[in-house]
Each structure stands twice: as structure tokens, then as C-alpha cells.
Design a protein that fits this description.
With 1230 residues, the protein is mainly alpha-helical. The protein folds into 6 domains: 2-65; 90-278, Alpha Horseshoe (Serine Threonine Protein Phosphatase 5, Tetratricopeptide repeat); 295-361; 392-694, Serine Threonine Protein Phosphatase 5, Tetratricopeptide repeat (Alpha Horseshoe), CATH 1.25.40; 753-977, Alpha Horseshoe (Serine Threonine Protein Phosphatase 5, Tetratricopeptide repeat), CATH 1.25.40.180; 1061-1096 and 1110-1175, no CATH class. The chain is 60% helix and 2% strand. It has a 3-stranded antiparallel sheet, with no helix packed on it. The radius of gyration is 51 Å and the shape is flat.
Length: 1230
């Protein structure tokens, strides 16, 4: 199949290219489908279906293309063989007409020796015009000896076919020429494998095309293949020749079809066409020989892999021992790895053609990873990605420098790269040692030898511009800078002497102000000013000396001075070079003197060197040489200098690929010297500090928890996305999860219960989120609230400082839940009492393990809960109960503060913490600003006694002998007080949630009008036929009854009967007056009865004047009024029908407060009050919701406001305008 590929393109390569193209084009289709689908489940199914269909279409297209190309090539070869076997040779008269010129024929033969595919048309025309009968042997030799390319093979076959059909003896002589060219000896190596690869394919194409006779041609081809395989059993140097033959001629001679195409043909039921050039038996012989060769190749691959593994192990061992690898070993390893990669790739290609599997190779961790082994060693030693900077801000400081070269009017020097300092070819310890030995003869300090050179006034001259300013490209920032440079240059030309004096004074001021540049912007501005105003040779030298002579205590300015030098270095390299040389000589002078003086100057020098190294202004080779020099005599000041150098530039050098190994060796040497040398503890701690700064200790890597995608999504919404601005979006997203799935439901509840995993300011947002979910998932929210209470309870039962932040967060969470109306005030008060009472011992001699005397955390916990929700106890009942708790809370505070642990005068370190005292006072000031605090423990105890005497008078005598500190008070019924804390009129925005179904949809919502049941509904039971008939008849009966009732007149139901005025104004008897005075209350008089009746008449649904027939009717709620708390009787008015004429009569009587009549009256009045409060609350909620929607609409852009009207808003109508211009009343009066 592949042998028929005589064209310039390879079908296998074309198929692979088509596959790659389709693979690249397939994913965008899937992404497009995924973006157009709305439902996520359907989206995934559509994406998978689209990907599968696209893959199938791609495979079918690739297979069809391969089969078409193969069929065309097989047919063209068959036609060519037929043409070369049935041709008719021309006669003598044909050759007599052709040109037999010697010169032209000789030139034609020479052209054949340099044959290329582009010359085919020219040669074919010349062949038709020339008589080459006497030059056939030369032509055959020229074609056999020509250095051809693979792309020239089809053209040569075409030319040879033409010659074969024209000249009779061409095939015989052509075969002889090829036998000479393909004469291969089994004992000799191939001299030119590239030519033999092309010649072998060309000879096979000539045989299959019929140019060379089949029998001798196959014999010669078989001899060549046998010799190639026989002499290639060990090193497989001829593998590329055999692989090329299999790729191009394997289908015709061995029946080879690529494994991928064969699998696709089998998959889709397509038959691959086969060539009829050779029989199956002959193809089988060659295929068997090739498979034997492939088996030997697999053994060779395994052997090469073993050798590479051994070399890798040796290199690892060498690096562990010496920390570096020699150049010879490095090159040898890289060469071996490159050869192995090439051999492995070729083996894979032959495996694909033969359909034979490769043997299982060793894993990459045991062998070699992609890339060189040296790179693998470096990567394995780097413990991850090499990052010299650590964070983006540091990287920006050292690498992002302003480049003003194109804006300077007098600059034309080439670009200077800070990273291209000439480093030695190898950063090895031997090279550093040799360099140090050669330079250790420096005796004098550089400050003495270089002063005259730096301050020589004879060198004060300006550097003139070589390139005019007009050649500089104008840009935004560059225009102003170039104009400034031109003005300065013109001023200098007008008055040189005066200008130079002014510049000298300005430069002195500039040098003084340079040391005040303590941030990035100031130092960059200073560098720009220097390059624009003072960029002369003398001033650069003076600048170098000034920077070098910076005060030894100004270590903070060294990074900025180094950045200044780096910016100047991009335009003038002499400043950085001179400064680096000065620092290097100064460093070596200090080391050579070996004195224990001037430690600050020494530290300044090494820190300056370290900063220049990070800017690329000081060679790493020289910097490591300085560190090596310090390690030679590692004591006293050398220890501090080495530690300072490693602290500044150690991390950078350790994370640079070329210096990492050597820096690692020096760090280990420092640690060994610390262990082996008796040194000061201060020095030992410094060494350990810088060592672990550069090489942090390896912590045990925790395997990240593998969670399902839905769990990860829930965690992402709650712990990452949740913030104040997108609470509503998170609520909508959480509503979309499958709450009916038990696993998802439990995990969502678990995450919602862990408020301590969020940042503290987001605890309120989490409570808001839970409040929003309460309308849709009340059962889940109830479990979350229970978990919060359980967590707080567990925190009180386990005294552990590690849980402190968790307990604070959960207390904050509980308080925010109260603010969002998720819990009642009773639960908050119970929790507060538990905080100050659970496990607390009020006996100072008994130490409680849950609340030790020195632990003040419960005070902080109670203050946190009070600060969060205490100000929202606004109703009368809750404020009263909170006031009771504050009495006990103050007692607990004074009990803690008066404990001997904090009150011992001799131990001032155990005094009560001032921060806790401030927290306590601030908390009470926020909850009760006007509360008078107790000043001692005795006052707190007295207050508790008074409170117990007021609330529990019957227990006073029983508790005299006991500690009355923390007796739990009973909770009064909130309904008895008339108003609940939940129904209070607080206008706090945090305590209001939008009603489900009325929330305003944002512009980025995915769906609209989404509803979901709070709880899963069970499937309805199946109804029988009888049930359906019954329901139909029942609905019909109900409808008929409803229609009949609509025709009847509507009469109001008389619930209460008003008392007539005569009964209200009747005179009281003497017994009634004396009874009222004795009881001390005025609730029994008729005026109060009248007031009660009036109040009842004002209520909705009060009875009308018509009364039903009956003898006796009780006034009930109409004539009676509930007395205040503590009264023993309730007055009533009894209405009876008289015997004469049926006239109504009214009689007053008093019923006991515990009678059924009075109790029923109380219940009825209570229900009426509750109904009123409910209506009031709903009305307020609707009003506040409307205000909230108006506020949300005001936040939208103006163009969207007209499209966000709520359902209750009426569309705006155009105001009617009178045709004759009637006046507008709104404009007149408003």
C-alpha cells in the first residue's frame, strides 16, 4: 500500500494531518453546543453525542481519504506496468529523424547526474528530440549514481519508463547499473545511508512499475534487504533504511497496512484495496523477515533503556555526593538520551506498520523523563517550579525597569540586557577555587587606590550625541523627554561655563536627595532625572563613588540604589561595572585583613553585593566566590557576613538553574560547620534561620481530599464565591442543587453549618444565605440551626484553646441568625445562660475543668453574642428578659475579676486583662447605653437576691443557705406581654427577607419564575372509577350550591351584640359602689363596660343591629371586658327577653376570672389581637418590600429601568392634552 506512494505526499502523513486537523476543530463545536443548551444534564448528553458524531465523521473521512489515495496509486501502478509491458519500440526511421549531436547528448547525460524533479519537463522535451541510442549505458549509470531525494523518485520513474519504451536494451543495462550501485557486502557498513534509503525505494518503484524485469529485480531487492538485516543485528544502524522501505513500499511487497487504518476499516466494515503485484506467499516471506527484525529491534531498545537507566543512577549519585556534574558526563548522557529517543520513536513507527506491539518499557520515574537527564536532575532537586522571586511584587521590583533609551536625545549605544552578563561556562566549585586563589593577593583597600581615578577633573567632558534627536521615534512619553533634552543642550551651548557651574551645584543637591528616595517611584524618577540632566562621564564616576560610600547603617536603601544603578546601566554600563568592581575589591580587602572591626561596613558590602546579584549587575560566579571565601574561615564576622549574604540573595541563587546545585552545596557546608564547630548560640541561630529561609523544611504533604463535582461546587459557592454583593446569586445557585438527593442534602447542610471556615466578615452573609434558603428548604435550615447549637454546646463542654476562633465564629453566626429571624429570643437567652453557667463553679476553692479561673474566654463569647444580636432585643418582653440576664452576666464578670488569680497584689502579671475589661464595658454600652454597672461582686449578688425575691418569692426561704448566683429564671410567655420580639417594628434591614416568588430577578439570572417545592411530595394514590364518579358528582353539587347561595342576600353574622345606651348609663346600686371601692379597681363600672363595647364595635366584622330570635343571649365579648392582670372577677351584661311584649332587658353580673366564660372571652380577645397583629405585619412587609424593589430599581442603569416594573405597577400612560391648550393643573398647583 505504501509502496505505491510515488507522489510527493505520503498518505499516512496526510491521514495523520487530517486527524490532527479534525481533532483540533472538534472541541469548539462541543463548546458551542454546551453554551447553547440550558439544561445542564441535557447539555452534557448533547456534548457527548456531538463529540462522538464528530469523531466518527472524522474517522470515516480519514479512512475514506486513505482508501481513495491507495486505490488511485494501485491503479496508476497497474496502468504503468501494463504500459511498460505492452509497448512497441520505434523503428529506425524514428531515430533517423532525431538529433545525434555529441554535444547535446553529452549535456543531456550530465543533466541526468544532477537530476531533480523540477527538470522533468525539460528533460522529457530533450529526450523527444535527441537520439540517445549510443548513450544508454551512460544514462543508466547516471540515473543509478545520481544523488536524489525522496521527492525526485516519481519523476525518475516517469523518465525511466519513457526511456524503457523508446530504447530496446535500456532495461538490461539499467538492471546492470543498479546491481553495481546496490552491491552491498554483509561485512561492510553502509557508507552513505541517506543515498541507499532513496536508491532502495527507487529500485523497488522501478521493479513494481515494470521498468526493470520482475524476476531479476525481485532477486536483487531480496539480496539487498537480506544483507541490510544481516549486518544490523547489534546496533541497528540501518534501521532508518528498512523503516523507509516499509513506509513507502511495504504495501506492495509485504502487504503492510498501518494498524490505525486497519482498525478503522474493521470498525466501519470497509475493505482496504490490495495490490496484485505480488502473491500472498511472496509477501508473507518478506513480512516474516521484517517481524524477526522488529523483535531484534525491541531487544535493542530494552538494552539501550537499561544503559540509560544505569547512567541516570550514576549521575544522581554523583549529584548527591558532589552537587555537580562534569561536562563530559553531561554531554555523554544527553547524547545517549537523544539516541534512545530517536530509536524509540522509530520503533513505534515500525510497530504501527507491522501491527506488532512494543514491549513494555520501564516507567518514566525509573528511567528517563522527557528532556535531558540533566534537566530532570535539576527539576528533581528544585522541589517544584523554580521561582527566584516568590511573589509578583518582588518580581516586578527587580525585573520591570523603565527603559528610556529611545527617549534620550543623546543616546545611541546598543541595548544592554541585564541577564546577559558573561558567566563562566560552568559554575563549579573547582572553578571558583581557582579564581579565588588567583585573586587573594589584594592587600590595599579599593577606597585608597580608586579615589584619584574616580574624581579626576580632567575627564570632565560631555558625551556628544552621535545620533540626532530627530532619528528617535516619537512616542507619548518620549516627546516630552526629548524636548527637555533639546532645551538643556541648547542652554549648554549658549553659556557653557555658567551652565556647568549650575549643573555642578544641582548635581550635588541631587546626590544629597538621592538617599531620600525610599520607594520605587522616587528612585525611578531620580534615575530619569540623572539620565536627562547629569549624564556625563565625570558625574557618573562621582555618582559611583557616592553610591559606594552610602552610610553603613542605611541598609534599607540598598535595594533602591541597586535599582537606580540597574536603570542607569541600561544606558551606560560603566556605573554598574565600576560599582561592582569596587564592592568586590572592598569585600576581598576586608577578608584579607581578618580583623574584627567595622562589622556594619562588612554587612553593608555583602548586602549590596546580594542586591546587585538579583538585578543581574554582579556575576553569580563572583557572588558564589565571595560566599566560598567566607566559608574558608567560617568564624566571627565571616559568619554574620555569610548569613547576611544568604539572607539577601540566597533564595534567588538557589532558585536559579545555573547556580542552584552549587548554592545547595554551600548551604549544606554551612550547616555542617555549625554542627562541627563550637560557636555562639547567636551565630548558630542565624545559620539555621538563613538555611531554612532558603530551604524550608519539607512538611508532610497532605493528600487533597477527592470530592465529587457537586460537593466541590457547593464548597465553591459557600466558601469562595459568597460575599455581600452576590448573596442573592448564591441563594439561587443553591436552590438549583438536588436537595432530594440525601448525599447532596447532607453535604450542603454540613457546609452551611461551618461558619468558622469563612472569613469573619462573611459570617453575616452566610446567615443571610441561610435565611434566604429558609423559605424553600425549611427542613434543611432547621438542621443547620440545630448543628449550630450543638457546636456551641460542644465548645462549652470541651475547654480547648485551639477551638477559640471556631467558638467565636459560631457565636457570631448564631447572633446573625437571630437578626435574620431564624431563631427565637428564647434560644439566644438560653445560650447566653449556658455560656455563663454550664460547667461553672461558683466556689473559688473548686476549680472547674470546663471553666478554669484564669480562662476569660466565656466572657468574650458572651460579649460577642450580645454585640451581634443584643441591640435587636427591641420588644418589651425581650428587653425585660435581657435585663434579667445582664444582672447574672455582671455577677459572672465580677466573680471572674475578683478571683484570687487576678486579685493577688504580689503577682502583678496575673492582674485582670485590660482588653477583656474594655470588651465587657463596650458590650454593655452597646446593648444598654444607660445601664448602671455594678462596681463589685457584692453589688451583683445583692441584685441577684432582689431579682429572685421579685420573681420567686416562694423560693426565698429555701435558697437562703445556698448560693443564689446562677439560678435559672423562668421564661415568661411572650404572648402574655402583648407584643413579641419577632413582631416588633424594627426597621433593621438585616432582619427583613423578601417573600418567596416576589424577589426581584437580576439581569444575570439564568431562569425566571422558578419554583420548587419545599419538600418532596409523595405520588398521589391511584383513584378508582367509583372515586372519580363521586368526585364529579360532588363538584357538581358544590357548584350548584354555590350558585344558589350567590342569589341569596348577604347578611353580616352577628358575633357580638352592642349594649344599649340605657344599659350603659343605668345607675349602680349601693352594693356595686361599695364592692368597687373594696376591690380597689374601677373595672366593674359601666363606663369601662361601655368602653369595651365601643372598642368591640370598632373591630372589623362587628355585629349588626338585627338579632336572631332567642330567649336568652349572653353579651360575651360585646358586653364584657377582660380585667387587668391580678383581678378575681370579670363583669358581664346579660340580655334577656321580657315576658311582656318581648322587650329586651339587661342585667349585670360578675363572673370569676377562672370560670369558663371568662377564659373563653380571654381566648377570643387574644385571637382578635393576633389577627390584628398579623394583618399589621403583612401590611408592613408589603410596604417595605415595595420600598426595597424601588431601591433595587434605582440601582439599575437608566436604560433598563423601564423594563423592570413589578407586577403591581401600572404602565405609564401619556397624559391627555386638550386640543385648545387647556391649562395643566399639576403644573399650576405643584
Amino acid at each position: 500500500m505504501l509502496a505505491n506512494d510515488s507522489a510527493a505526499t505520503d498518505p499516512l502523513e496526510a491521514a495523520e494531518a487530517s486527524s490532527i486537523t479534525n481533532d483540533v476543530s472538534t472541541p469548539p463545536v462541543s463548546r458551542k453546543d454546551s453554551t447553547e443548551d440550558v439544561d445542564e444534564g441535557d447539555n452534557n448528553a448533547d456534548v457527548d453525542a456531538a463529540a462522538a458524531s464528530a469523531l466518527e465523521a472524522e474517522e470515516r473521512e480519514e479512512l475514506l481519504q486513505f482508501i481513495n489515495e491507495l486505490r488511485d496509486k494501485i491503479e496508476s501502478k497497474r496502468q504503468l506496468r501494463l504500459q511498460n509491458s505492452t509497448f512497441k519500440l520505434p523503428g529506425e526511421e524514428y531515430f533517423a529523424k532525431l538529433d545525434s549531436n555529441l554535444k547535446k547528448n553529452t549535456a543531456f547525460v550530465k543533466k541526468l547526474k544532477l537530476f531533480t524533479a523540477t527538470q522533468l519537463d525539460v528533460l522529457m522535451r530533450e529526450l523527444s528530440a535527441l537520439n540517445l541510442s549510443k548513450y544508454i549505458s551512460e544514462i543508466c549509470a547516471a540515473l543509478a549514481e545520481a544523488k536524489l531525494k525522496m521527492t525526485d523518485v516519481p519523476a525518475v520513474v516517469t523518465l525511466a519508463s519513457r526511456l524503457h519504451c523508446t530504447y530496446a536494451d535500456f532495461d538490461v543495462q539499467f538492471l546492470e547499473a543498479w546491481q553495481k550501485a546496490l552491491n552491498i557486502k554483509a561485512t561492510e557498513k553502509i557508507g552513505n545511508p541517506s543515498k541507499l534509503r532513496v536508491d532502495l525505494r527507487l529500485f523497488a518503484e522501478l521493479v513494481s512499475s515494470g521498468v526493470i524485469q520482475m524476476k531479476p529485480g525481485l532477486a536483487q531487492l531480496g539480496v539487498v534487504l537480506v544483507h541490510l538485516i544481516a549486518q544490523d543485528k547489534d546496533d541497528h544502524s540501518n534501521f532508518s533504511i528498512i523503516l523507509s522501505f516499509c513506509r513507502h513500499c511495504g504495501e506492495e511487497y509485504a502487504g503492510l497496512v498501518p494498524q490505525k487504518m486497519q482498525q478503522l476499516a474493521t470498525k466501519y466494515g470497509v475493505e482496504v484495496p490490495k495490490s496484485d503485484f505480488l502473491t500472498a506467499d511472496k509477501q508473507l516471506n518478506l513480512r516474516t523477515m521484517l517481524k524477526d527484525y522488529f523483535k531484534a529491534l525491541c531487544k535493542h531498545v530494552l538494552a539501550e533503556q537499561g544503559e540509560l537507566m544505569n547512567m541516570t543512577k550514576n549521575i544522581r549519585r554523583t549529584m548527591e555526593c558532589k552537587g555537580e556534574i562534569s561536562t563530559e558526563k553531561r554531554e555523554k548522557c544527553e547524547l545517549m538520551q537523544a539516541g534512545f529517543d530517536k530509536l524509540l520513536a522509530s520503533a513505534q513507527s515500525l510497530s504501527e506498520l507491522l501491527g506488532e506491539p512494543l514491549p513494555e518499557l520501564a516507567k518514566e520515574s525509573e528511567c528517563c523523563n522527557p528532556g535531558t537527564v540533566i534537566d530532570n536532575m535539576l527539576d528533581s532537586a528544585s522541589f517544584g517550579v523554580l521561582d527566584p522571586w516568590g511573589d509578583e511584587e518582588t518580581r516586578s521590583f527587580y525585573t520591570d525597569l523603565p527603559d528610556l533609551r529611545q527617549f534620550l536625545p543623546n543616546f545611541s549605544a546598543p541595548k544592554v540586557d541585564l541577564e546577559t552578563l558573561e558567566e563562566p561556562s560552568e559554575l563549579t566549585e573547582e572553578a571558583i577555587e581557582a579564581n579565588l586563589d588567583a585573586e587573594m593577593d589584594l592587600d590595599d583597600p579599593p577606597s585608597t587606590t580608586s579615589d584619584s581615578a574616580l574624581e579626576n577633573p580632567s575627564e570632565e567632558q560631555l558625551t556628544t550625541s552621535v545620533t540626532p534627536a530627530e532619528d528617535v521615534k516619537p512616542q507619548k512619553m518620549g516627546n516630552a523627554l526629548m524636548e527637555l533634552g533639546r532645551q538643556q543642550q541648547s542652554q549648554l551651548n549658549q553659556n557653557p561655563t555658567q551652565t556647568q557651574n549650575q549643573m555642578r551645584q544641582q548635581f550635588d543637591v541631587f546626590l544629597v536627595n538621592l538617599f531620600n528616595c525610599v520607594n520605587k517611584e522616587l528612585i525611578d524618577s531620580a534615575a530619569i532625572e540623572f539620565l536627562l540632566n547629569f549624564n556625563t562621564k565625570h558625574q557618573r564616576k562621582k555618582l559611583t563613588r557616592t553610591i559606594f560610600s552610602v552610610q553603613r547603617t542605611r541598609l534599607d536603601i540598598l535595594p533602591y540604589l541597586s535599582r537606580f544603578v540597574a536603570i542607569v546601566h541600561m544606558c551606560n554600563t560603566d556605573v554598574a561595572a565600576d560599582l561592582a568592581e569596587l564592592l568586590r575589591k572592598e569585600f576581598k580587602w576586608h577578608i584579607h585583613k581578618k580583623n574584627q572591626l567595622n562589622i556594619e561596613s562588612k554587612l553593608k558590602i555583602v548586602r549590596f553585593i546580594g542586591e546587585l546579584v538579583k538585578f543581574g549587575l554582579f556575576k553569580k560566579f563572583d557572588a558564589l566566590g565571595c560566599l566560598k571565601m567566607l566559608l574558608r574561615d567560617f568564624q566571627h564576622h565571616q559568619i554574620e557576613m555569610a548569613c547576611a549574604f544568604v539572607e539577601v540573595s540566597g533564595v534567588y541563587l538557589y532558585n536559579c538553574r545555573d547556580a542552584r546545585l552549587l548554592m545547595n552545596v554551600f548551604l549544606d557546608q554551612m550547616l555542617r560547620l555549625k554542627t562541627a564547630t563550637a560557636m555562639d548560640s547567636r551565630h548558630a541561630s542565624q545559620i539555621e534561620s538563613v538555611y531554612y529561609l532558603v530551604k524550608p523544611p519539607e512538611s508532610s504533604k497532605r493528600e487533597p481530599a477527592v470530592r465529587p463535582p457537586m460537593h466541590e461546587y457547593i464548597r465553591h459557592l459557600i466558601f469562595e464565591e459568597l460575599c455581600k454583593q452576590n448573596v442573592e446569586r448564591c441563594i439561587k445557585m443553591l436552590r438549583r442543587i438536588d436537595w432530594q438527593d440525601p448525599e447532596t442534602n447532607c453535604y450542603a447542610i454540613k457546609c452551611l453549618s461551618k461558619a468558622y471556615l469563612l472569613r469573619f466578615p462573611l459570617v453575616r452573609c452566610l446567615a443571610d444565605l441561610v435565611s434566604g434558603l429558609s423559605s424553600y428548604q425549611p427542613r434543611a435550615v432547621t438542621i443547620v440551626i440545630d448543628n449550630v447549637f450543638e457546636d456551641i454546646r460542644a465548645g462549652l463542654e470541651i475547654h480547648s484553646p485551639r477551638m477559640a476562633q471556631r467558638r467565636i465564629a459560631m457565636a457570631k453566626y448564631l447572633g446573625e441568625m437571630y437578626n435574620y429571624k431564624l431563631v427565637e429570643s428564647t434560644h439566644i437567652l438560653n445560650t447566653l445562660y449556658s455560656i455563663i453557667s454550664l460547667g461553672v463553679s461558683m466556689d473559688q476553692n473548686v476549680i472547674s475543668p470546663l471553666d478554669p479561673p484564669d480562662s476569660l474566654f466565656r466572657l468574650k463569647l458572651a460579649c460577642m453574642l450580645l454585640d451581634t444580636c443584643g441591640p435587636y432585643f427591641t420588644s418589651q418582653a425581650t428587653r425585660k428578659k435581657l435585663d434579667y440576664f445582664l444582672v447574672f452576666f455582671q455577677h459572672y464578670y465580677w466573680f471572674k475579676k475578683s478571683h484570687p488569680v487576678f486579685s493577688k497584689a504580689e503577682n502583678t502579671s496575673d492582674l485582670f486583662p485590660i482588653l477583656v475589661d474594655h470588651t465587657y464595658r463596650d458590650c454593655l454600652a452597646s446593648v444598654r447605653p444607660k445601664l448602671k454597672l455594678y462596681k463589685s461582686l457584692d453589688q451583683a449578688k445583692a441584685a441577684i437576691d432582689q431579682l429572685q425575691e421579685k420573681l420567686y418569692p416562694q423560693l426565698k426561704a429555701a435558697n437562703n443557705a445556698q448560693d443564689p448566683s446562677l439560678a435559672t429564671i423562668s421564661e415568661l410567655s411572650e404572648l402574655d406581654e402583648g407584643v413579641t420580639d419577632e413582631d416588633s417594628g424594627s426597621s433593621n434591614d438585616q432582619r427583613e427577607r423578601q417573600v418567596a416568588g416576589q424577589e426581584q430577578e437580576q439581569s444575570n439570572d439564568w431562569t425566571e419564575n422558578e419554583t420548587e417545592p419545599p419538600l418532596p411530595q409523595p405520588p398521589p394514590p391511584e383513584k378508582s372509577k367509583e372515586d372519580l364518579e363521586f368526585e364529579h358528582l360532588y363538584d357538581k353539587m358544590t357548584t350548584d350550591s354555590y350558585q344558589e347561595r350567590l342569589k341569596e342576600p348577604i347578611k353580616a353574622t352577628a358575633k357580638d351584640i352592642p349594649v344599649p345606651m340605657m344599659a350603659r348609663l343605668q345607675k349602680k346600686s349601693y352594693e356595686q359602689i361599695t364592692g368597687a371601692q373594696a376591690s380597689g379597681t374601677g373595672n366593674n363600672n359601666t363606663s369601662q363596660i361601655s368602653k369595651a363595647v365601643a372598642n368591640q364595635d370598632a373591630t372589623p366584622g362587628s355585629p349588626g343591629p338585627d338579632l336572631p330570635d332567642g330567649n336568652v343571649k349572653s353579651g360575651g365579648g360585646a358586653g364584657g371586658s377582660v380585667a387587668a392582670a391580678g383581678t378575681a372577677a370579670v363583669p358581664f351584661v346579660l340580655m334577656v327577653r321580657g315576658n311582656k311584649g318581648g322587650k329586651q332587658q339587661f342585667k349585670s353580673f360578675v363572673a370569676p376570672s377562672d370560670s369558663h366564660l371568662a377564659i373563653n372571652l380571654k381566648r377570643q380577645e387574644q385571637k382578635i389581637r393576633e389577627e390584628k397583629e398579623k394583618v399589621k405585619r403583612l401590611t408592613l412587609n408589603i410596604t417595605e418590600r415595595i420600598e426595597e424593589e424601588d431601591y433595587q430599581e434605582s440601582l439599575l442603569p437608566p436604560q433598563q429601568r423601564n423594563f423592570t416594573q413589578s407586577y403591581y405597577q401600572k404602565p405609564n400612560k401619556h397624559k391627555f392634552k386638550h386640543q385648545k391648550g387647556a391649562p395643566d393643573a399639576d403644573l399650576i398647583f405643584h
